[in-house]
Design brief:
The complex is a heterodimer of chains A (272) and B (308). With 272 residues, chain A is mainly α. Chain A is 70% helix and 0% strand. In chain A, helix 2 runs antiparallel to helix 7. Chain A is elongated. Chain B is flat and about 85 Å long. Classes of the chains: A mainly alpha (272), B mainly alpha (308). At the A-B interface, helix 3, helix 4, helix 7, helix 8 and helix 9 of A face helix 1, helix 6, helix 7, helix 12 and helix 13 of B.
Chain lengths: 272, 308
């Protein structure tokens, strides 16, 4: 078995991603205190031995909230990416396989989506559907969908011209069979790498919109929402703002490092 | 050349038409709501419901409403805000100034950060590039709204170098522009440096050096112009991300502006206002992207013939 050589930055990124996933799946592993356990006697305590990231305005442990915040924050990024991938693949395949008219219409619709700056498109979706995590995810997915759909369309067109697809067609496979068994699996590969890089961006935009109060509602321990809550206290309690934001930054750095590595591998670039 | 440019313009118009249609559909997807919302604001009685329905044309068939909507938008009439009791156009006009100031300041800061950083580090040894590269990595990863909060906490609240929240004037622009510029500046530094490094290998640079032109002059007078070419491809992306970023940064700094207006409108379910702002942003974005595309044709003659 060949063990691929991994650069230290990528290894670090992978390690952070694993820790984040663990925190999202089992926050109890990292923190014994609940994220909502408020203690009115201990409000806005600076970092110390009992609360090493301090406490917030309700006396909740910031460390515990940062750990528990991994789940909603990652979930928004991952769910939005998954949704965008699925919908983008569907649109891309339809555009490539559905004939000229479908392709034209799909292309125009994607152009329209692309003509609105991302954050405003999410605002529009949330304004129509209402605030909340699900609608935020839908909005974020809609922003990234066009890029994925275009890539899938181009990949399908490329794969369709290859020998093995021709062979399958000659062997009498139906068109649907060929598309599902050969075209899609081969077209989706580069997309997954791109989507991994995209997860980082989704987490940032998602947390920004939570910060604006349009995502998960308080008292959910979500990093963006925590930052919004810290706004009034940042003068006296820097720790309420520093740690949730650092968590977002660390997540983005780790996810992008891994995503970039996947992308380089998918494109056959050798690690330097 | 003219044909290609016209086709590009035509597709931009089509896209805008599509965006207006989406806006109309968005308004009508929530079509039960506006009357409820308006009656809620003006008190309830049966007569009032009908009056409002008629006033907003909600009783007419959908295609008629669509054409009316389209006609109004073409004349720049974006309807009335449900909550502010103002035409959407007026509400946007009132808030446009502060946002344009913020965006202008951000572009200046971005250029002021990215151009020197790229000029000073292009083609330099590793120990010069690495610290800047680390900063770039951070600039891309740090969320603007968090950076804004940190800058505010440090420079306004603690050091008191800059006014705190919602300050008008130039002083109040520095921190929000810095927070908003960090990400774009990092990306542009990278792209510009790559462009510069490619240019510095070109024969004409060697020629200039052979003529005895100094390193600073080579970079400033010869390499920079060529190195900037790949950056023009980023102008469209930059516009979009700055418009989106302004929405969040205005809230962080409690500034007036279109972003704050949009967020308040979303919270109030004031759909005409949200849609008005989205359409204006979409128009600006589309115009910039079209202009960028057309400018390639001017800059790079090869694109004029290989029109698809």
């Amino acid at each position: 078995m060949v063990i691929p050589r991994i650069r230290p930055g990528v290894a670090l990124g992978l390690a952070v991603c694993v820790l984040l996933l663990l925190a999202a799946l089992a926050p109890g592993l990292f923190s014994g205190t609940g994220p909502d356990a408020a203690n009115p006697a201990d409000t806005l305590l600076p970092p110390g031995s009992a609360h090493w990231m301090g406490t917030d305005e309700n006396g909740r442990d910031v460390y515990s909230r940062v750990v528990h915040g991994a789940r909603p924050s990652l979930l928004i990024g991952l769910a939005a990416s998954a949704l965008a991938l699925a919908a983008g693949t569907l649109v891309g395949v339809l555009a490539a396989q559905g004939g000229r008219t479908v392709d034209r219409i799909a292309g125009r619709l994607l152009d329209v989506l692309l003509s609105i700056p991302g954050v405003l498109l999410v605002l529009l979706v949330v304004a129509v559907l209402g605030t909340g995590t699900g609608n935020l995810v839908a909005g974020l997915a809609l922003v990234t969908l066009p890029g994925y759909a275009r890539l899938v369309r181009a990949e399908v067109l490329r794969v369709r011209g290859t020998g093995y697809v021709e062979a399958a067609t000659v062997l009498g496979w139906s068109r649907l069979q060929v598309v599902l068994r050969h075209v899609v699996p081969n077209a989706v590969g580069p997309l997954v790498a791109l989507a991994t890089v995209g997860v980082g961006g989704m987490i940032v935009t998602g947390s920004a919109l939570s910060f604006l109060g349009l995502g998960p509602q308080p008292p959910t321990a979500e990093w963006g929402a925590m930052l919004a809550g810290s706004g009034d206290y940042v003068q006296v309690a820097w720790w309420t703002a520093v740690f949730p934001g650092a968590a977002i930054t660390l997540t983005v750095l780790a996810v992008s490092a891994v995503g970039q590595w996947l992308q380089d591998r998918a494109e056959g670039r050798v690690a330097r | 050349m003219i044909g290609g440019a016209l086709r590009r313009l035509g597709s931009a118009v089509l896209v805008l038409w599509g965006a207006v249609t989406v806006a109309f559909l968005a308004l009508h997807l929530t079509s039960g709501d506006p009357v409820d919302l308006l009656t809620g604001l003006r008190g309830t009685s049966d007569g009032l419901r009908e009056e409002i329905t008629r006033e907003y044309g909600l009783d007419r068939p959908l295609p008629v409403q669509y054409l009316t909507f389209l006609g109004h938008v073409l004349r720049g009439d974006l309807g009335d805000s449900y909550v502010l009791h103002l035409p959407v156009r007026t509400a946007i006009g009132q808030q446009l100034g502060p946002t344009l100031q913020l965006l202008g300041a951000t572009v200046l800061v971005t250029v002021a950060l990215a151009v020197p950083a790229a000029l000073l580090t292009a083609g330099r040894p590793r120990w010069v590039r690495t610290p800047v590269a680390l900063l770039e990595g951070l600039g891309v990863a740090v969320p603007a709204f968090w950076l804004g909060t940190l800058l505010l906490a440090l420079f306004s609240f603690r050091l008191r170098w800059f006014p705190a929240l919602g300050a008008p004037g130039l002083d109040g622009l520095v921190l929000p522009a810095l927070a908003l510029a960090a990400g774009p500046a990092a990306v542009i530094t990278r792209v510009l440096r790559r462009g510069l490094e490619r240019t510095l290998d070109e024969p004409f640079v060697t020629t200039a050096r052979a003529r005895g032109v100094g390193e600073a002059a080579v970079r400033l007078r010869h390499a920079l112009r060529h190195g900037l070419l790949p950056v023009t491809t980023l102008v469209g992306w930059l516009t979009g991300s700055l418009i989106g970023g302004a929405v969040v940064i205005e809230s962080v700094f409690s500034r007036q502006g279109l972003g704050t207006l949009a967020v308040t409108a979303v919270r109030n379910k004031d759909l005409p206002l949200v849609i008005g702002i989205v359409l204006v942003a979409g128009l600006v974005y589309t115009v910039v992207n079209t202009a960028v595309d057309l400018s390639y044709r001017l800059v790079d003659p090869r694109l004029r013939t290989s029109e698809s």
